[in-house]
Amino acid sequence: MRSDFAIRLVTHFYWDKKESFALDRDIYSYWTILAVEEGRFTYRIEDQEGEAGFGSLVVCPPNTWFHRKTLEPLTFHFIHFTWNTEPSLEEQRSLTGNLMIADIERLCSDYRYLRLIALEQDKAAIERKQHLVSDMWRLYELERNVPKEIGLTVVIADEEMRKAAHFITANIFGPVDMKSLALSLQLTPVQLTRRFRAAYGMTPSEYMTRLRLDRASKLLLETEFSIDKIAQLCGYENGFYLSRIFRNKRGMPPSQYRSLPRV
After folding, report:
1. What pLDDT digit, counting tens, does each position of 158-179 carry?
2. Residue 136 and residue 86: Cα distance in Å, rounded?
3. Are 39 and 94 contained in the same domain?
4. What is the pLDDT of residues 114-133, one digit of tens each?
5. Please, what is the angle between helix 123-149 and helix 104-116, to 10°?
6. Secondary element (H or E) of residue 67
7. Rounded to 10 degrees, what is the CA torsion of 63, 2, 14, 160?
8. Is the domain of 91 the same as that of 191?
9. Domain boundary among 125, 149, 173
């Protein structure tokens, strides 16, 4: 598939915990993306059909029936767009259906900002939405094209592991009970750890620590908050505990990291 496609946003709407679609099928004059944040639904687009959940970008071409049915309350972004260069009929097929994104941390960030400006439709908001939607699409392209060019294989997380990563990301700065998370997915903690590592290259705990330390690093450089305050904002009990983990994972104490030159 070509990697030079660029999305031109037409409209964006956000729905939170929608119990069912108003119509079981609809047809649109623009290309459409239904990007799932939470929940699941089934879809059929021409001869392609399946089930989609978190991490899915379900893409439907214009003037094509989009069949859909919720399986559980659905939180999603509904996007109409055009291309800078219209794809050929063969390329259209590769761009249609359930396109999966593995980097859920980046995807969650795009979703979070889209939610914040979901109700805004002025020119500035549309430009910001354009940036975020383009980022989502470029992320998909990178995962599909760059690894092939450098001889790497991307492992796509299954639905359960995407749910696990989404749960950790959504609750990252509060208490995260891994045993309860495993139980909610009908897995043992050992199974959760093994499958999560296979999907994301790290254990759930390592994933959680990386996200927390990323935020701590940002706060160290961009604020004058005390170490105890930063620890609190990043889900740690106190500054001493944060300092110990930070030194172990980042190779220096927070105080030294804060003194690094800022560009």
Report:
1. 778 888 888 888 888 888 899 9
2. 19
3. yes
4. 999 999 888 899 999 999 99
5. 170
6. strand 66-70
7. 110
8. no
9. 149
Q: DSSP secondary structure string, 162-211?
A: HHHHHHHHHTTTS---HHHHHHHTT--HHHHHHHHHHHHSS-HHHHHHHH
Q: Where does the pLDDT of residue 226 fall: very low under 50, low under 70, confident under 90, or very high at 90 and above?
A: very high
Provide the sign of the torsion angle of the four alpha carbons 194, 200, 206, 211, taken in this order. Answer: negative
Question: Do residues 22 and 107 share a domain?
Answer: yes
Please spell the DSSP secondary structure of 94-116, one letter per residue. Answer: HTSEEEE-S-HHHHHHHHHHHHH
Answer yes or no: pTM beyond 0.85. Answer: no
Examine the fold and report which residue of 97, 130, 149 is the final residue of a domain before the chain moves on.
Answer: 149
Q: Decide if 177 contacts 137 (C-beta within 8 A).
A: no
Check pLDDT > 60 for residue 151.
no
Is 263 within the bounds of a domain? no
The total of structural domains in the chain comes to 2
For residues 172 and 210, state if they share a domain. yes
127 lies in the same domain as 163: no
Whole-angstrom distance, CA of residue 45 vs CA of residue 64: 7
Domain span at 33: 7-149
> For the range 134-140, what are the long-range contacts, defined as Cβ-Cβ under 8 Å and sequence gap of 24 or more?
134/6, 134/7, 134/9, 135/106, 135/110, 136/35, 136/57, 136/101, 136/107, 136/110, 137/5, 137/6, 137/7, 139/101, 139/103, 139/106, 139/107, 139/110, 140/57, 140/99, 140/101
